Amino acid sequence: MSLKRIAIVGYGNVGKGVHRAVLTNEDMAVSGIITRDTKRTRKELVEKVKKVVSADSIHSIEALADETDVAILCGGSKKDLPEQGPIFAVHFNTVDSFDTHDKIPGFFEMMNGVASFHNHVSVISAGWDPGTYSINRILAESFLPG
Question: Fewest Cβ atoms closer than 10 Å to its Cβ: which of 65, 83, 110, 129?
Fold first, then answer.
C-alpha cells in the first residue's frame, strides 16, 4: 500500500479537523503543516508532525512540495483561498473548500489555469456546501424528483 502524503495548509479549526481525519486513514500520512503561526502550531503538535513550515517561506513550501502528494487548503473563502490557492497550485496538487457560490466560476478558472500550467490538479469547493451537501441534494432529487 502506497501512503498518500498530505500537506495541511492552515492549522485553525478546519486544519485540525483535516489532521485528525488524515490520522484515521492508514493509507495517508501528514507530510507537513504550513501555517502563519509556526510557534503556536509546533507547541500544539509537540512531536506529532515532523515539519511545520511558515506560510511566508516559499523556500520551505517548495521543499515540502517534493515530499507531498496533495495539499489540503484549509483557509477561509473570503480572503485566504483566493490569495493562497494560486500560490499553492504552483507547487502542489490541491483540494479546498471554497464556498463563495457566486465566485466559484472565477475561482475555478484561476485555479485550473495555474494548476494546469504547472502540471497539477486543483479540486475546488469540496467542502460541505458546495461539496458533500450538494452530492446529498443531487442523490435526494434523483430519488424524489420535483
Answer: 83
What amino acid occupies position 96? D
How many CB atoms within 10 Å of residue 101?
A: 11
The three cell numbers of residue 134 are 450538494
Distance CA 10, CA 37 (A): 9
Among the listed residues 64, 59, 116, the one whose alpha carbon sits nearest the alpha carbon of residue 86: 116
DSSP per-residue string spanning the chain: -PPEEEEEE--SHHHHHHHHHHHT-TTEEEEEEEES-HHHHHHHHTTS-S-EEETT-HHHHHHHHTT-SEEEE-S-TTTHHHHHHHHHHHHS-EEE----GGGHHHHHHHHHHHHHHTT--EE-S-BTTTBHHHHHHHHHHHHS--
Phi, psi of 52 (to 5 degrees): -125, 115
Report the alpha-carbon distance of residue 87 to residue 135 in Å, rounded.
28
Q: What is the pLDDT of residues 44-54, one digit of tens each?
A: 886 667 788 88
Residue 38: pLDDT band (50, 70, 90) is: confident
